[in-house]
């Protein structure tokens, strides 16, 4: 019998609002402990929540972007449990009437196929504070700056069957929320978090196996590893005659394994009920329509447009459309250079390589899109060759400046003067008599390849600046003349 | 000075008969010498009061006085007051100095009022006798062996004993009206949302409502003028126009349609109270009102529905008292769970623990539908009863309480017996309607209250109806012996 | 609905309330009486009656997403039982 994994994901995306979901305190990351926790966030006696309009708008943006049902009446509920980082003793969330109902996203798999993944719901809730266990003997420090930060919890259907699919789904959601500008997507800072529900069953079975929920996974790579590991663990356990305990597990990236969270073992009874301090959120078609009209172009639409407008391959269009920052960069390069294919190659090639090597976000690239476009323009108009362009790019990356400035300062302008090139060609032919003899002796059909040697020599003599097309033409002409 | 109404005090200040400092000092002196008999204050703030009084006098001299400038009032110790202990009658908050002002407190400050101090109350407003206060029960000035009612018992006792000319209270199931009835005061529970709840320590959020407790309807109107209004800090406060509640007190009552719910006048009602209420209704007829019997068929269900909804909300509202950020924390906790349990076990009194447990149980898995949801459905039925009735009549009248003030300790052994005391008041909170209690006579020397119920946001009408009665009668001017 | 001692202990744990051993029975009795009182509700047919959560038929107002709260840590922590380096201290949390 073959095993099959069943995976459902809960993604918590911190919404990029200025203030908390229910208070006017700032949500900026990295402040001194408890300096962004106001009386409401601390749950001082008598304090009350007031709902942030941006949190609502952002949730509706997400809902419309995944073609979901939008709850015209949504209600906040209280989820009651005691934890020191939860000041009120309950989390304000949405259980019964979430703001976003059923929707879906399409993911692309490595074999080129697409798969539709259902989104069960997405609801608004408040984040908890942070518990800091270091620095204190037998004590835990509580920082409530994060308490009350708006979260959109996006719950998927158990539609994924492999770690690969799960990661593709997470990346898709990540690209949607960052593209919408409703979440900064920073996984390291916890702005975008993922809990993975994993179970296994024999292929073809209807019923689900007991599932585990793995928390605390803060990168795409770890999601893949954690799920793979958890699937293996479950299969091993079942094949050894064991049973899977329904439990919460924690992913330990250092050991690359999940372990049971003892503290959450106790069966919780959250005693959900509608929050009496907040009234139903009521929105109408006009509101939803206005949000829909204000949506930026989404990745799928942009990908189609890139194929259509720029004649890019599906693959290139897919890569370049995933993130708005990358797409915007690419389109600026195209605008400047006037060559989409060349632009795509450079953005996905040289630029991406440098960004990755230096762990730099595209928004912080030392070579701006306009400057990269300017560089490509000089390839197009034969001012420099592609190889020289790479040198120019290196200099631009390291020292800044425009392509023209670098080309000028370093004297890298391509030689296109036919007389000068002819002189270099003649020099090279004169200096390599042995190779010329070989060329003459070779059958006509092999000669084409042999030109390469002379090409290299001429380019060397020119310091790479000779126009390769012209060199090639002249070489063929002169060598063939010697053969007659 | 101490036996004057707010209206009279305002006039005295205006005419320069006395200054706010003199007036405030007179009240502070009385509190100092008399309150040991009544235990009506938890915290008296003489320095703050005199400072505010001096500022009010200065404002008046420079021509910046409003109608309430320089008037001293007392606040139920459930309203957070910056720099002053705000205990909610609980050991849990015995050490809690609030770092901020409730909206209601801000409004009294902005109106130039003087705060004499914070009045005694049932712990977290859970009680009908003031006996659950960590600070000991307040006493009824009409008979100090009797309870002043609850939960705003301290406010009622303070005003009845002339230790404050008026006070704020809160009413979740009758906590303004019942102590007003027990202490011969005029108390108003406004429409839910009329007065901001921000900074008012929550008992049951969907029922809690702040309001005035005063000597007359006119004084209650003056108080409500300060308190009412929408608050951006309270999502549940009503964005509904605020009237000048003193403007239409004199409207004649001819043609007023009064409904008497038959369920309020069952055979089990104390006959003396029944007679007093009927007497008051006769007085209204003399003032030109017509009377008709109506039915509020689900009245009896208000007790069970309330005693699910209020404890359920309370069980969640009181979870924040965990010993982490403020308030009581037990000594040397062994671990986190020990800290939670002992902090809360020690910090809360018996009745509070009881209600937290009832609420916790009602919301727990498997019981939600049978208790909480059912109670909210019954709440709907109760509201529909009122809506139907109030489409036929202008106001509904009946007793505020089934009996006059009972003796201290009389009902503490059986919580259910205590809960039944609230039978006539609970349904308004469930429906969110405004209601008043005004003095209408005495039974064995103890005051009896007439309850007047109006439609949503009909506070102006209620105050008018109460005021006209008080012009025709003198029950509200009677004073306990020795005061 | 009668609650026994075990029920009371379970509820008290859920609500994080320490109840003295000697008081458990009294709570069980009182809570049982209260539940008997509220059980009156069960006799009413509420099919098709929608629950009433808020007395007014109002909807949630929205707050502009503008920072209005400045750092007041010192004032807000003045009432805290245990604070160090700006953090609230609690007995060690085990995960």
Topology:
The complex is a heterotrimer of chains A (484), B (483) and C (95).
Chain A: E1 3-14, E2 51-52, H1 53-65, E3 73-74, E4 77-80, E5 90-93, E6 103-108, E7 114-126, E8 130-132, E9 139-143, E10 150-156, H2 163-180, E11 192-202, E12 212-217, H3 220-239, E13 247-252, E14 257-260, E15 273-274, E16 281-282, H4 285-293, H5 299-310, H6 314-321, H7 324-337, H8 340-357, H9 369-380, H10 386-399, H11 403-410, H12 418-431, H13 433-441, H14 444-461, H15 468-483
Parallel strand pairs in A: 12-13
Antiparallel strand pairs in A: 1-10, 1-11, 3-16, 4-5, 4-15, 6-7, 7-10, 8-9, 11-12, 13-14
Helix pairs in contact in A: 2-3, 5-6, 7-8, 7-9, 9-10, 12-14, 12-15, 14-15
Chain B: H1 6-15, H2 20-38, E1 41-44, H3 46-61, E2 72-76, H4 103-110, E3 114-119, H5 153-160, E4 166-170, H6 177-182, E5 186-189, E6 210-214, H7 217-227, E7 257-261, H8 271-286, E8 290-294, H9 302-317, H10 336-347, H11 350-363, H12 369-390, E9 395-399, H13 415-420, H14 426-431, E10 435-443, E11 446-453, H15 459-472
Parallel strand pairs in B: 2-3, 7-8, 7-9
Antiparallel strand pairs in B: 1-3, 4-6, 5-6, 5-10, 9-11, 10-11
Helix pairs in contact in B: 2-3, 7-15, 9-11, 9-12
Chain C: H1 5-14, H2 24-38, E1 62-63, H3 73-77, E2 83-84, E3 87-91
Antiparallel strand pairs in C: 2-3
Protein architecture, described:
The complex is a heterotrimer of chains A (484), B (483) and C (95). Chain A is α+β, with helices and mostly antiparallel strands. Chain A has 15 helices and 16 strands. The termini of chain A are far apart. Chain B has an 8-stranded mixed beta sheet with strand order 4-6-5-10-11-9-7-8, with helices on both faces. Chain B has a 3-stranded mixed beta sheet with strand order 1-3-2, with helices on both faces. The radius of gyration of chain B is 21 Å and the shape is globular. The longest helix of chain B has 22 residues, at 369-390. In chain B, helix 2 runs antiparallel to helix 3, helix 7 runs antiparallel to helix 15 and helix 9 (302-317) packs across helix 12. In chain B, 66% of the residues are buried. Chain B has helices at 6-15, 20-38, 46-61, 103-110, 153-160, 177-182, 217-227, 271-286, 302-317, 336-347, 350-363, 369-390, 415-420, 426-431, 459-472; strands spanning 41-44, 72-76, 114-119, 166-170, 186-189, 210-214, 257-261, 290-294, 395-399, 435-443, 446-453. Chain B is of the alpha/beta class. In chain B, strand 2 (72-76), helix 4 (103-110) and strand 3 (114-119) form a beta-alpha-beta unit. Among the domains of chain B are: 6-255, Alpha-Beta Complex (Amidase signature (AS) enzymes), CATH 3.90.1300.10; 301-376, no CATH class. In chain C, strands 2-3 form a two-stranded antiparallel sheet. Chain C is flat and about 55 Å long. The longest helix of chain C is centred in the N-terminal third of the chain and has 15 residues, at 24-38.
């Amino acid at each position: 019998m073959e095993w099959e994994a069943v995976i459902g994901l809960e993604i918590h995306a911190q919404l990029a609002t200025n203030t908390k979901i229910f208070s006017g305190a700032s949500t900026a990351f990295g402040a001194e402990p408890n300096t962004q926790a106001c009386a409401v966030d601390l749950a001082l006696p008598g304090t009350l929540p007031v709902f942030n309009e941006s949190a609502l708008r952002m949730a509706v943006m997400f809902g419309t972007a995944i073609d979901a049902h939008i709850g015209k009446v949504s209600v906040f509920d209280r989820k009651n449990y005691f934890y020191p980082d939860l000041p009120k003793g309950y989390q304000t969330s949405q259980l019964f009437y979430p703001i976003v109902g059923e929707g879906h996203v399409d993911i692309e798999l490595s074999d080129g196929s697409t798969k539709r993944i259902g989104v069960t719901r997405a609801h608004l809730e408040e984040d908890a504070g942070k518990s800091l266990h270091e620095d204190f003997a037998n004590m835990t420090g509580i920082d409530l700056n994060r308490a009350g930060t708006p979260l959109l919890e996006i719950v998927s259907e158990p539609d994924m069957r492999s770690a690969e699919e799960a990661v593709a789904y997470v990346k898709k959601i990540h690209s949607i929320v960052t593209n919408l500008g409703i979440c900064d997507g920073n996984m390291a800072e916890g702005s975008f978090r993922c809990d993975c529900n994993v179970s296994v069953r024999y292929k073809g079975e209807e019923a689900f196996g007991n599932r585990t929920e793995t928390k605390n996974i803060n990168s795409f790579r770890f999601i893949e590893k954690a799920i793979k590991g958890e699937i293996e663990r479950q299969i091993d356990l079942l094949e050894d005659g064991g049973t899977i305990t329904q439990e919460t597990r924690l992913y330990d990236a250092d050991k690359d394994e999940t372990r049971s969270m003892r503290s959450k073992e106790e069966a919780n009874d959250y005693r959900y009920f509608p929050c009496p301090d907040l009234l139903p959120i009521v929105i109408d078609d006009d509101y939803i329509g206005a949000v829909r009209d204000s949506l930026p172009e989404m990745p799928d639409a942009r990908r189609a447009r890139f194929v259509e407008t720029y004649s890019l391959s599906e693959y290139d269009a897919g890569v370049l459309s995933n993130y708005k920052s990358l797409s915007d960069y690419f389109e600026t390069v195209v605008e400047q250079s006037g060559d989409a294919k060349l632009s795509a190659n450079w953005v996905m090639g040289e630029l991406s390589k440098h960004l990755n090597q230096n762990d730099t976000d595209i928004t912080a690239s030392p070579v701006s899109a306009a400057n990269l476009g300017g560089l490509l323009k000089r390839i197009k108009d034969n001012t420099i060759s592609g190889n020289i362009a790479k040198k120019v790019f290196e200099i631009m990356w390291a020292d800044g400046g425009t392509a023209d400035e670098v080309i000028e300062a370093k004297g890298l302008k391509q030689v296109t003067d036919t007389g000068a090139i002819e002189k270099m060609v003649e020099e090279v032919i004169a200096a390599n008599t042995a190779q010329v003899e070989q060329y003459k002796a070779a059958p006509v059909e092999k000669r084409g390849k042999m030109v390469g040697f002379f090409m290299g020599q001429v380019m060397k003599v020119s310091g790479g600046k000779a126009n390769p097309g012209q060199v090639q033409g002249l070489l063929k002409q002169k060598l063939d003349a010697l053969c007659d | 000075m101490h036996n004057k109404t707010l209206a009279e005090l305002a006039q005295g200040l205006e005419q320069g008969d006395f200054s706010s400092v003199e007036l405030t000092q007179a009240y502070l002196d009385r509190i100092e010498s008399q309150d040991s008999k009544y235990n009506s204050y938890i915290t008296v703030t003489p320095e703050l009061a005199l400072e505010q009084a001096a500022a009010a006098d200065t404002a008046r001299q420079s021509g910046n006085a409003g109608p309430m400038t320089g008037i001293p009032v007392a606040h139920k110790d459930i309203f957070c007051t910056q720099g002053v202990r705000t205990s909610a009658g609980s050991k849990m908050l015995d050490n809690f100095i609030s770092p901020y002002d409730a909206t209601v407190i801000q409004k009294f400050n902005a109106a130039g009022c003087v705060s004499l101090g914070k009045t005694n109350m049932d712990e977290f407003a859970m009680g009908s006798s003031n006996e659950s206060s960590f600070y000991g029960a307040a006493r009824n000035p009409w008979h100090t062996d009797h309870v002043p009612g609850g939960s705003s018992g301290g406010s009622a006792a303070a005003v009845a004993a002339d230790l404050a000319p008026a006070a704020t209270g809160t009413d979740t199931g009758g906590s303004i009206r019942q102590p007003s009835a027990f202490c011969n005061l005029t108390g108003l529970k406004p429409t839910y949302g009329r007065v901001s709840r921000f900074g008012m320590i929550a008992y049951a959020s969907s029922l809690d409502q702040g309001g005035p407790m005063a000597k007359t309807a006119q004084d209650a109107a003056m108080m409500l003028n300060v308190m009412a209004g929408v608050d951006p800090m309270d999502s549940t406060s009503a964005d509904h126009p605020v009237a000048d509640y003193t403007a239409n007190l004199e409207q004649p009552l001819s043609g007023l349609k009064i409904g008497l719910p038959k369920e309020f006048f069952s055979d089990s009602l104390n006959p003396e109270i029944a007679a007093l209420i009927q007497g008051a209704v006769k007085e209204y007829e003399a003032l030109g009102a017509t009377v008709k019997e109506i039915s509020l068929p689900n009245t009896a269900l208000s007790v069970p529905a309330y005693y699910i909804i209020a404890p359920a909300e309370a069980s969640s509202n009181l979870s924040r008292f965990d010993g982490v950020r403020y308030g009581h924390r037990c000594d040397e906790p062994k671990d986190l769970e020990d800290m939670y349990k002992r902090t809360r076990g020690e910090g809360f009194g018996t009745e509070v623990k009881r209600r937290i447990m009832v609420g916790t149980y009602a919301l727990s898995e498997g019981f939600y539908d049978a208790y909480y949801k059912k109670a909210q459905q019954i709440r709907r039925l109760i509201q529909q009863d009122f809506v139907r009735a109030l489409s036929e009549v202008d106001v509904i009248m009946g007793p505020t309480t089934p009996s006059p003030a009972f003796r201290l300790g009389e009902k503490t052994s059986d919580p259910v017996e205590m809960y039944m005391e609230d039978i006539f008041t609970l349904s308004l909170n469930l429906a969110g309607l405004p209601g008043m209690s005004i003095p209408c006579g005495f039974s064995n020397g103890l005051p009896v209250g007439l309850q007047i119920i109006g439609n949503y946001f009909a506070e102006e009408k209620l105050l008018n109806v109460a005021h006209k009665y008080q012009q025709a009668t003198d029950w509200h001017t009677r004073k306990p012996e020795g005061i | 609905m009668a609650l026994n001692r075990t029920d009371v202990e379970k509820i008290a744990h859920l609500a994080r309330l320490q109840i003295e051993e000697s008081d458990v029975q009294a709570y069980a009795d009182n809570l049982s009486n209260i539940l008997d009182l509220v059980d009156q509700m069960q006799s009413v047919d509420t099919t098709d009656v929608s629950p009433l959560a808020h007395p007014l038929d109002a909807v949630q107002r929205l707050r502009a997403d503008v920072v209005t709260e400045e750092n007041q840590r010192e004032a807000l922590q003045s009432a805290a039982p245990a604070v160090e380096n700006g953090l609230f201290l609690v007995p060690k949390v085990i995960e």
